[in-house]
Input
Amino acid sequence: MSVLASIPIHPLLVHVPVVMLPLAALGAIALVVRPRWVQHYGWLVVAGAVVAFGGSFLAAGSGDDLMEQYQNSGQHISKTLSTHADLGGAVQWVALLFLALVASWVWLRKRQFGKPVVRTVLSVLVVLSAVAATAMVVEAGHNGATAKWEQTK
Output
């Protein structure tokens, strides 16, 4: 389904990863800074990462459908729109990496499992993936907005 009430669904679905990835990233960084919060909020952050990951696939799929509609109607696909599509695909993988890292980190922290060096390295990777996921979704969103505004000129 690529249309909802005669409106392309892609602009609606993109808000799931655009909101949830940075929110889950902030939550993950907060947990790394305050590990004692993991007991209360760890799985909430993981749930946010799951929603962000799922939303990234819905947004990318609906974006692919929208791009196909553009191509089938003879509309020109700009370089910016093509870049947006590529970045949207990359967001899926970065969101998956972030989800895997934050879920592993929460699981290890809740069980006090693993050597301290492993937990420290994983903490650094969680923060780096949180920053990367946020940057990637911002860049993809910016390219999408730019592509849309290019069409109105």
